[in-house]
Write a structure and sequence with these properties.
CATH topology of the largest domain in chain B: Rossmann fold
Distance between the termini of chain A: 33 Å
Number of strands of chain B: 20
Strand content of chain A: under 5%
Number of domains of chain B: 2
Number of helices of chain A: 15
Strand order of the largest sheet of chain A: 1-2
CATH class of chain A: Mainly Alpha
Helix content of chain B: 10-25%
Organism (chain B): Bradyrhizobium zhengyangense
Oligomer: heterodimer
Order of helices and strands of chain B: EEEHEEEHHHEHEHEEHHEEEEEEEEEE
Catalytic activity (chain B): ATP + H2O + polyamine-[polyamine-binding protein]Side 1 = ADP + phosphate + polyamineSide 2 + [polyamine-binding protein]Side 1
Number of domains of chain A: 1
Shape of chain B: elongated
Structural class of chain B: alpha+beta
Strand content of chain B: 25-35%
Subunit structure (chain B): The complex is composed of two ATP-binding proteins (PotA), two transmembrane proteins (PotB and PotC) and a solute-binding protein (PotD).
Radius of gyration of chain B: 25 Å
Distance between the termini of chain B: 53 Å
Helix content of chain A: over 70%
Radius of gyration of chain A: 25 Å
Structural class of chain A: mainly alpha
Protein name (chain B): Spermidine/putrescine import ATP-binding protein PotA
CATH superfamily of the largest domain in chain B: P-loop containing nucleotide triphosphate hydrolases
Family (chain B): Belongs to the ABC transporter superfamily. Spermidine/putrescine importer (TC 3.A.1.11.1) family.
CATH architecture of the largest domain in chain B: 3-Layer(aba) Sandwich
Number of helices of chain B: 8
Largest sheet of chain B: 6 strands, mixed
Chain lengths: 303, 386
């Protein structure tokens, strides 16, 4: 089919538009990053070599290709610093996602059971934090969590503690920040599935002899699994690569991969290693993405 | 657990009342939502083995009453005694009552088999017994071969059967059916009505069905409770409701009826001669309950009205006196089995007459503007307070 015929039909153009977008803004940049990850760092502009120079002729390009190597990946695999950073990222992401699910599910469930007109209000309340810049909200948490911050003042006033508690620069502070920031991404897909669930299903379960906890585990929860899947992935994937929250709220003794990447790129000016770290991160994240894709497809097939 | 409940048959023990004995007693039950009194002091007794219908227009409280029996709503007042035990405050999963939901509420993530087995598993029934009972239920509702399907792979009629099997599987003392046939098309609905009745008779179970369709209630139920604005307006057999409605509202709600407002009444032996504005003087049999001083009307069902070209011989004041009304045909509505004629009476009123088309050729049919005599006996008339 010729290009002219494709563009002559708006519907066909609309069908290929996402692919054009993906190629231009994902595949091509990904190619650049992949190429840089196979290069070596150099004191130059750009700070790596070899550089492809299409004007230098065929032999120059061939020698540039020959100069590419997977040394950076070997480095990442052999250096504990990176391995630990990946492991820490995954641990943080898993822990945070579990926390988000445990906190977000009851909220979403409560929202879905509100009278219709209050559901809209609750929805706005969940979304309203987005109206303030994410960074400002994290800085606000620094204020709340610091030595003489709001949280310690309240705890002292209520005589729950006798000394101010150290919150800032701890994992607790980081988890507070992550849960706070990502909670809407967990709540909204959960709410969407729970709200469209027929209330008669839960009634039918209890009518057939299921006490409330069985109603939840045998009917409500299994039927909300698509929402759980969407919420978990919407939170898990960005949290793995999270940089700002751990940088501002967590201590500096163990880094997440996002922070390591930032250090390599900006402090060490080692673009090739930073690129290789990014590629590995992408591969690590591909697993849950593929899982989500399969989940979605199965759901579509069932409909 | 559930199988410890008195009268629950899941575990094989049974202590339910025999057919004909009182099973359920509802005493002064009321439920208010906000300021709306959905159910307003309903008292009712249902015997074991009955097929009882709660009939009424939407918003009359019939569904709320059913949901209170299932345990989804708690009554604000009154008692609900099942086999002598007050269940008004028991939770849904603690009651030996099961419900078939209006849109079936089948669990979409479970197969037909697991849907039917759901209630049995909750009762802690042994695995082998569950398999036997499920097979029995599948055979009962004729769903053999579909056990592994999910609800969305079934037709509407099949889903309805799964819902029925699921609700029957625990052998409840009382089965509640919330508009069970509303989602089926007309032909399938009629077949299913027959099957439900046959099933109820065979199992000897007690059914309470909620419906807004008076034909459905008349066809299936042995007794009907008509509800209006949260109250039971009348309870009786289908024939009682149709032939002896207690009020004008019930007469109009159940089937078609001609109504003539009374202006005067005169006693004549066992009969009353009632003067009406639209149909002149009508002779009616004296009602069992004396007509009070308030307003009332004379009612006559369309199929009780006979039409002829000339009226039969009748002597006013005589024992065999019948009502003869002259008029012309104003409207004809052919319905296949019957034809409904609207007769414009010479006295001014309109009278509907439903005539069976007992012959294939239309030699007996009347045509528009034809002069006819409409007649009916005093016994066919009902006197109703307005």
């Amino acid at each position: 089919m010729s290009a002219r015929r494709i563009f002559a039909r708006p519907a066909r153009f609309a069908a290929i538009a996402p692919y054009v977008w993906m190629v231009l803004f994902f595949l091509v940049p990904f190619g650049f990053v992949l190429k840089i990850s196979l290069s070596q760092t150099a004191i130059a502009q750009p700070p790596y070599e070899p550089v492809f120079d299409l004007t230098a002729g065929w032999t120059a390009i061939r020698s540039a290709f020959a100069a590419l190597s997977i040394d950076n990946f070997r480095l990442i695999a052999s250096d504990d610093l990176y391995v630990f950073a990946y492991l820490r990222s995954l641990t943080v992401a898993v822990t945070a996602t579990v926390l988000l699910l445990v906190i977000g599910y009851p909220i979403a469930y409560g929202m879905a059971r509100l009278p219709k007109r209050w559901q809209a209000v609750a929805m706005v309340l969940v979304i309203v934090p987005f109206w303030t810049s994410f960074l400002i909200r994290i800085y606000a948490w620094i204020n709340i969590l610091q030595h003489d911050g709001l949280l310690n003042q309240i705890l002292l006033a209520l005589h729950l503690v006798s000394q101010p508690v150290v919150w800032l620069s701890t994992d607790t502070a980081m988890y507070i920040g992550i849960v706070y920031s990502y909670l809407p991404f967990m709540i909204l897909p959960l709410y969407a599935t729970l709200a469209k669930m027929e209330p008669a299903l839960e009634e039918a379960a209890s009518d057939l002899g299921a006490p409330p906890w069985q109603v939840f585990w045998l009917v409500t929860f299994p039927l909300s699994l698509p929402g759980v899947g969407a919420g978990v992935l919407l939170c898990f994937i960005p949290v793995v690569g999270e940089f700002v929250i751990p940088d501002l709220l967590a201590g500096s003794n163990s880094l997440m991969i996002g922070q390591t990447l930032w250090l390599e790129f900006f402090t060490n000016k080692d673009w090739p290693v930073a690129s290789a770290a990014a590629i590995v991160l992408l591969v690590v994240l591909l697993a849950p993405l593929l899982l989500y894709e399969r989940l979605q497809r199965r759901q579509l097939e069932e409909q | 657990m559930t199988d410890e409940l008195p009268g629950t048959d899941v575990a094989g023990r049974d202590a339910r009342p025999a057919a004909g004995e009182p099973l359920l007693r509802i005493e002064g039950v009321a439920k208010t939502f906000g300021t709306f009194r959905a159910v307003d002091g309903v008292s009712l007794e249902i015997k074991a083995g009955e097929f009882f219908a709660l009939l009424g227009p939407s918003g009359c409280g019939k569904t709320t009453l059913l949901r209170m029996l299932a345990g989804f709503e708690a009554p604000d007042e009154g008692r609900m005694l099942l086999g002598g035990k007050d269940i008004a405050q028991a939770l849904p999963h603690e009651r030996p009552i099961n419900m078939m939901f209006q849109n079936y509420a089948l669990f979409p993530h479970l197969s037909v088999r697991d849907n039917i087995a759901f209630g049995l598993k909750r009762a802690g029934m042994a695995r082998a017994d569950i398999a036997t009972r499920v097979a029995e239920m599948v055979a009962l509702v004729k769903l053999e071969g579909l056990e592994k399907r999910k609800p969305d792979q079934l037709s509407g009629g099949q889903r309805q059967r799964v819902a029925l099997a699921r609700a029957l599987a625990r052998r409840p003392q009382l089965l509640l059916l919330d508009e069970p046939l509303a989602a089926l098309d007309k032909k399938l609905r009629e077949n299913t009505q027959g099957e439900l009745m046959e099933l109820q008779r065979r199992l000897g179970m007690t059914f309470i069905i909620v419906t807004h369709d008076q034909e459905e209630a008349m066809t299936m139920a042995s007794r009907i409770g008509v509800m209006k604005s949260g109250k039971l307006a009348q309870v009786g057999t289908p024939r009682e409701l149709y032939e002896a409605p207690r009020s004008r509202w019930i007469a109009e709600f159940v089937g078609d009826i001609n109504l003539f407002d009374a202006e005067s009444k005169l006693r004549d032996g066992h009969r009353l001669v009632i003067g009406t504005r639209d149909a002149g003087a009508l002779v009616v049999a004296e009602p069992r309950e004396a007509v009070g001083e308030g307003k009332f009307s004379v009612a006559i069902r369309p199929e009780k009205v006979k039409l002829s070209r000339r009226g039969p011989v009748s002597a006013a004041g005589h024992e065999t006196a019948i009502n003869l009304l002259d008029g012309v045909i104003a409207d004809i509505c052919y319905l296949g089995g019957t034809t409904t004629y609207k007769v414009k009476l010479d006295t001014g009123g309109m009278l509907q007459a439903s005539v069976a088309n007992s012959a294939r050729l239309d030699v007996d049919a009347y045509s528009l503007n034809q002069h006819v005599v409409a007649w009916f006996t005093p016994d066919d008339c009902v006197v109703l307070p307005s």
